[in-house]
Amino acid sequence: SSIIFIVHAQYIGKPQTTNEIKAVLKHSVELKCEYTGEDGNGQFLEWYKDGVAVSTEKAGHYAVTTTEKESTLTIKIFVVNDTAVEFWQVKTNKLGYEEPSECRFGKISAIPSPQSIETNRANEKIESRQGSIRRSEDKAVVLKCIIEPKPDNYDENEIVWEYSKDEESYSTLPPSVTKEGDKISIEHVKKFHNGFYRCTINNVTFPVLLRVKDRLAALWPFIGIVSVVIVLVIIILIFEKRQKSNKKSSTDDDDQDQANDPLVRATTNPSDNDTKKRAVNA
Predict the structure, then answer these.
(1) What is this structure's pTM?
(2) Which of 55, 166, 225, 248 is at 20 to 30 A from 37, Cα to Cα?
(3) Sequence-ordered alpha helix ranges (H) in 6-113
(4) pLDDT of residue 11
(5) Which of 262, 282, 258, 261 is nearest to 272 (CA)?
């Protein structure tokens, strides 16, 4: 006689498939399928989206890690195209549980969140959370928080703007910063406006660093170059003046030496020699 062991397989999806899954654009999303059966082996095969294996997609967008007890699909950067997928699932090699319903996930919707910041300058858009802008003192600055996707009942006043000197602790906006809906503006930016400004909605933030330059900052390199040129000209003039002075002094010394040298005097004074010759002949 033979003994047949019946193993009760059990899969658990995380997040739970009965819940609506939401994610933030440009952030990562994780779907996990755990196996809690008595045999300890879920026999996971591959992850699929709308019936197409994710391994056939562009490399780098998805990552799959699998052990005997769990398999995880990570969407590294959640984008708009991912919101169009109707269902996500993992398949197994376990008889009767080839497509466990507990690990079949529905659509993932995008949470409205800050995705970039635009300024009052044409074509200036900060799309990186480590981005920065520069302004000279007394120039105007406008920062607009771009929310994607925009909800139907979108209210710009729900956006919260905050300020930080060091990006560690944020507080209220500095003086003379005006908030209007999804925008903040500074009519005449000053040095004390230096720092990080961030907009927040649905607990998602987007910061930008404002760097304020001295109004004369652009002139300092020019002033430095002019100063160096002036110093060089002065040095050259002093050097040439000293050369001329040394040359004149050397000439005067040579003339004096010649005047004091008896041989030079004898050679250069023929009238004395002629007088002596006439005296001898007489």
Answers:
(1) 0.69
(2) 55
(3) 80-83
(4) 96
(5) 262
Distance between CA atoms of residues 204 and 112, nearest Å = 9
Phi, psi torsion values for 120, nearest 5 degrees: -80, 5
- Alpha carbon distance 274, 108 (integer Å): 127
175 touches 144 (CB < 8 A):
no
Alpha-helix residue ranges (DSSP H) falling in 59-207: 80-83
> In this structure, is the dihedral angle defined by the CA atoms of residues 93, 94, 95 and 96, taken in order, positive or negative?
negative
Query: Under a CB-based contact definition with an 8 Å cutoff, are residues 125 and 117 in contact?
Result: yes
Helix, strand or coil, per DSSP, at residue 261:
coil
Does the pLDDT value for residue 2 go beyond 50?
no
Cα gap 66→32, rounded to integer Å: 10
Calculate ∠ Cα 185-190-196, nearest 5°: 65
Nearest to 145 by CA among 223, 73, 221, 198: 198
Task: Compute the average pLDDT of residues 20-31.
Answer: 95
**Rounded distance between C-alpha atoms, residue 1 and residue 4, angstroms:** 10
Tokens of 63: 């990552």
Strand order across the 177-180 sheet: 125-126, 113-119, 141-148, 183-186, 177-180
